[in-house]
Amino acid sequence: MALLPILCYPDPRLHTVAKPIARVDARVSQLVRDMLDTMYDANGIGLAASQVDVHERLIVIDVSQERKQPLVLINPELVWTSEATHLNEEGCLSVPGIYDGVVRHDEVHVRAWDAEGQSRTIEANELLAVCIQHEMDHLMGKVFVEYLSPLKRNRIKTKMRKAQREDAR
Ligand code: NI
Predict the structure, then answer these.
(1) Do 122 and 131 contact (CB within 8 A), yes or no?
(2) Measured between alpha carbons, how far is 90 from 102 in angstroms, rounded to an integer?
(3) Known catalytic membership, residue 135
């Protein structure tokens, strides 16, 4: 089991746009395992490779109660989004302790490769749909706090920087 360090907002590396993965090889399989270990260890429901400073289009998710239903999405693309949207409270392993509302599509269809490199389409709603949209934003270099007002975002930046200074002591 390998735990990867998670980048914390406002680390500029979180704004890197991820590149597609050409093939699922041993390196990618190891990254998937390490990201799952890291997500479960941090009690997260989703983790994008961007958050562990690997700028490739890979996300891992598990929204199950039992934390035993890992979902691996490689090169995910949204193929359909519902018109209906909802305000949901979100948090992020890269912005610890901060929760705020973001408007997301209620339902999305996403096409992606699974951990074996097989292409499939997932129809997601509720928490899974929110999580997929949140993690896919990470791959575009976008952190959820960027949907909030500049005032809120600046407060969060200040708070995060202060916490990181205290951690560094
Ligand atoms: Ni996040």
Answers:
(1) no
(2) 7
(3) yes
User: How many whole angstroms separate alpha carbon 69 and alpha carbon 65?
Assistant: 9
- pTM beyond 0.85: yes
- CA of 23 from ligand 1 middle (Å) equals 25
Using the mean position of ligand 1's atoms as its centre, give its distance from the Cα of residue 162 in Å: 20
Rounded CA-CA distance 161/158 in Å is 5
Neighbours of 166 (CB within 10 A): 8
Interval between CA 18 and ligand 1 midpoint (Å)? 14
pLDDT per residue as tens digits for the range 5-54: 999 999 999 999 999 999 999 999 999 999 999 999 999 999 999 999 99
Query: What is the 137 CA–ligand 1 centroid distance (Å)?
Result: 8
Q: Which of 89, 107, 135, 166 is catalytic?
A: 135
Show the tokens assigned to 87: 């305000």
